[in-house]
């Protein structure tokens, strides 16, 4: 996986380009200050040498000594001033770049029109790493690149100074540091590999941690007393990750200890040689001072560069995941110049539609042929796992079928503009979202352009039968439907947030779908399954009146709620096995009649037992 993310140079160029697009002025200022900072150590070393030589010279004058000391003090002040300026610019640049990178990332994620990638574990791992990269990697790469460049400028100056004293020692010092640089890069490669390998482990750890802290899971976790079980699972994943990191840390410790001893030995030998040269008159005390400063500066700088290069390499690998996500192509088939989506006039047709979630998994839909006439209410019936919800996702074009075609008034929906197509569809899914927003916003996200239209919000809530519930909340429709955040006008009182019941949330989700008014197709997949049978039938009747003359597709396990549909389609094993109205299907004595009779008999027996 990692090898496929492009070369470090190309990835680094992309990071620099992102930084330049995000903060050109900050980046330029930071680069200028970095260059100035690079020159200070070299100038300081040379002025220190000149000062010491001047102090030891018989021809020294007070004016020359004072002048050199003033220059030395000026460089010290410059160093002290430039460092905080550099840190400030780096912090500002990091924030601006992170904002720009996150915007790019989530725009790219938003361009993924389907669900297939989101249900792919590899993509989830890559997306998690891409989010981490968006927060820090790009700015860190740029900072590291500039840091390496400035350090190399410093090293060049110090090497020049060292070469004046001893070209041989210059080569020895550089060669001594080279193995350390290679070792640091090797460690960085291993760390990046471990980060990728541990992504599933860390996602599982986050999953268990989420269950331990989630409001939604709190009831079951405590009732079934599985806090300890989940905590143990969470720590098993953490221990596994820690073990992998510990092995890498130990390997790094051994390598760096050996190389550090080697580098220290070379430095000691160099200092011994320089001291002997001073004793023999071959070098001045100023030369020795410059030599010590140069050797220490070069080794520190090159070791720092080695570490920085290694960290940069690791950040580049991380940024590669960001690049992969932000440059990914569409997950649904696209054509140039998609057709405008006309209002539905004849209906929707599925012709020989086959679908499975992965090539190594069984078919979920097997040659589906069905027609949903315009202006009619069509019901889908079938046992759990028959393929009803998958078929709905195909109609919404959250997936494309592996074989077969879905037609919108005779036009393949792949040829239609995806945003326009979805704008003509409204839906309530089985697992409808609970948004941690106000009650009004929970309804209005169904058609966000009308977020402030309170009249439409109230009307949709009334049809869904949830209006009376919402107006009685602490601050009515402005009440936050969560305890996770405070309402904007609720002060610091957490009681300003309210948690709805399951049935109330289902009615609210229905209101959200109804707020998306005058859509050509309304899909209701178990929209109010949490309500009692009478309440569900009342809701279906209200929706039927509201949607009179429009096309609706209903799914419910309560057969009585569907018996008035214009057309009932029975699905079994991913295939259409029956279709007709209620009376026709009951007369056919097939699977529909069996399901309806069994459910009706259950109601009769329950009623008899109650009496």
TrEMBL record:
It is found in: Cell membrane. The chain crosses the membrane at residues 25-47, 67-85, 145-165, 171-188, 257-276, 288-310. GO terms for molecular function: ABC-type oligopeptide transporter activity; ATP binding; ATP hydrolysis activity. Its main location: membrane. InterPro entries: AAA+_ATPase (IPR003593), ABC1_TM_dom (IPR011527), ABC1_TM_sf (IPR036640), ABC_transporter-like_ATP-bd (IPR003439), ABC_transporter-like_CS (IPR017871), P-loop_NTPase (IPR027417), Type_1_exporter (IPR039421). It comes from the Bacteria. It is a multi-pass membrane protein. The keyword Transmembrane helix applies. GO terms for cellular component: plasma membrane. SMART domains: AAA. Residues 31-314 form the ABC transmembrane type-1 domain. SUPFAM superfamilies: ABC transporter transmembrane region (SSF90123), P-loop containing nucleoside triphosphate hydrolases (SSF52540). Residues 348-598 form the ABC transporter domain. Keywords: ATP-binding, Membrane, Nucleotide-binding, Transmembrane, Transmembrane helix. This is ABC transporter related.
């Amino acid at each position: 996986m990692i090898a496929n993310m492009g070369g470090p140079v190309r990835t680094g160029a992309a990071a620099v380009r992102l930084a330049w697009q995000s903060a050109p002025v900050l980046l330029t200022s930071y680069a200028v200050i970095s260059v100035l900072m690079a020159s200070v150590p070299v100038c300081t070393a040379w002025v220190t040498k000149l000062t010491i030589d001047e102090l030891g010279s018989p021809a020294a004058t007070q004016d020359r000594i004072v002048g050199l000391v003033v220059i030395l003090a000026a460089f010290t002040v410059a160093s002290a001033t430039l460092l905080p300026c550099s840190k400030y610019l780096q912090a500002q640049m990091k924030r601006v770049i992170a904002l720009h990178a996150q915007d790019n990332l989530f725009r790219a994620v938003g361009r993924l029109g389907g669900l297939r990638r989101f249900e792919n574990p590899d993509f989830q791992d890559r997306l998690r790493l891409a989010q981490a990269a968006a927060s820090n990697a790009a700015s860190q790469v740029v900072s590291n690149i500039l840091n390496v460049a400035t350090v190399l400028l410093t090293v060049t100056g110090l090497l020049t100074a060292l070469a004046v004293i001893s070209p041989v020692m210059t080569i020895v010092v550089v060669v001594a540091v080279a193995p350390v640089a290679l070792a640091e890069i090797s460690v960085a490669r291993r760390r990046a590999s471990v980060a990728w390998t541990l992504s599933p482990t860390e996602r599982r750890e986050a999953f268990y941690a989420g269950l331990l802290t989630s409001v939604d899971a709190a009831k079951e976790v405590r009732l079934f007393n599985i806090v300890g079980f989940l905590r143990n699972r969470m720590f098993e994943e953490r221990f596994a990750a820690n073990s992998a990191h510990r092995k890498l840390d130990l390997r790094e410790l051994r390598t760096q200890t050996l190389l550090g001893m080697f580098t220290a030995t070379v430095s000691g030998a160099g200092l011994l040689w320089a001291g002997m040269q001073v004793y023999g008159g071959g070098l001045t005390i100023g030369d020795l001072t410059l030599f010590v400063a140069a050797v220490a500066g070069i080794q520190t700088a090159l070791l720092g560069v080695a570490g920085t290069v290694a960290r940069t390499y690791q950040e580049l690998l991380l940024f590669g995941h960001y690049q992969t996500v932000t440059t990914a192509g569409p997950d649904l088939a696209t054509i140039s110049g998609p057709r405008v989506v006309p209002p539905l006039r004849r209906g929707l047709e599925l012709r020989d539609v086959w679908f499975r979630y992965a090539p190594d998994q069984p078919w979920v839909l097997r040659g589906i042929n069905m027609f949903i006439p315009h202006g009619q209410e069509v019901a889908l019936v079938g046992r759990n796992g028959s393929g009803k919800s998958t078929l709905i996702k195909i109609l919404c074009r959250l997936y494309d079928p592996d074989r077969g075609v879905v037609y919108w008034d005779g036009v393949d929906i792949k040829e239609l503009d995806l945003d326009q197509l979805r704008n003509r569809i409204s839906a309530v899914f089985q697992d409808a979202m609970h948004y941690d927003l106000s009650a009004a916003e929970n309804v209005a996200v169904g058609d966000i352009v009308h977020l402030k239209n309170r009249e439409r919000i109230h009307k949709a809530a009334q049809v869904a039968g949830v209006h009376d519930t919402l107006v009685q909340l602490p601050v009515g429709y402005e009440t936050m439907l969560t305890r996770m955040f405070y309402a904007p006008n609720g002060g610091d009182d957490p009681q300003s947030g309210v948690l709805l019941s399951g049935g109330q949330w289902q009615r609210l989700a229905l209101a959200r779908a109804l707020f998306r008014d005058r859509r050509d197709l309304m899909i209701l997949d178990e929209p109010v399954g949490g309500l009692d049978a009478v309440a569900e039938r009342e809701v279906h009747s209200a929706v039927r009146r509201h949607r009179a003359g429009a096309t609706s597709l209903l799914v419910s396990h309560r057969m009585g709620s569907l018996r008035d549909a214009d057309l009932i389609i029975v699905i079994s094993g991913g295939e259409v096995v029956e279709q007709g109205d209620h009376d026709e299907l009951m007369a056919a004595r097939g699977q529909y009649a069996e399901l309806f009779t069994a459910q009706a008999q259950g109601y009769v027996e329950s009623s008899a037992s109650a009496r």
